[in-house]
Amino acid sequence: MNPKVDAFIAREKQWKKEFELLREIALECELGEELKWGQPCYTTDGKNVLIIHGFKEYCGMLFVKGALLKDPKSILIQQTENVQAARQARFTSVQEITKLRTTLKAYIREAVDVEKKGLKVALKKTSEYTLPEEFEAKLRSNPKLRSAFNSLTPGRQRGYILYFSSAKQSKTREARIEKFTPNILAGKGLDD
């Protein structure tokens, strides 16, 4: 048991009992325990297997490569359409977790097996994403910006594409593009 995770759970107000039970289940599967990205993270041979996290409406056990799991009980959820690899099991009570304890352990064992085999999720390539028309127009009219954008890592490119595309109104997309043009020109990602 990692003291950093002890401290994390001690501070938790809404999902404390649920986190304690999810942690117990993960540790019974002989996973390593760390605090990564501010959340309890469980590993095998140094590779991330799952994360326990909480939100306003639910807490969850997120399987890092959940897309590769069989999910015979249909408990895994793709958080958003843009999440490619991870899948989460969501809970709102200790009772729900207790009911699925055996299933969760089976899923964890499968997730560990996925890591030990070195399996990878086939991720969508950046070129497969559609650029918002406002950004496409800006890139056509500004060769310097196009060159800078093309020089970014694929992950940074995807970050911008997804962020710009997520705006419902053209006006908002244009404002976002304008705001982040200096970052792109400086070779920075969305969160740099």
Secondary structure topology:
Blueprint: H1 3-11, H2 16-28, E1 32-36, E2 39-44, E3 47-54, E4 59-63, E5 87-91, H3 94-99, H4 101-116, H5 133-141, H6 143-151, H7 154-165, H8 170-185
Antiparallel strand pairs: 1-2, 2-3, 3-4, 4-5
Helix pairs in contact: 5-6
Q: How would you describe this structure to a colleague?
A:
The chain is α+β, with helices and mostly antiparallel strands. The protein is built from 8 helices and 5 strands; from the N terminus they run ααβββββαααααα. Strands 1-2-3-4-5 form a 5-stranded antiparallel beta sheet. β3 and β4 form a beta hairpin. α5 crosses α6. The protein is elongated. The protein starts with a helix and ends in a 7-residue tail after the last helix. The mean pLDDT is 94.
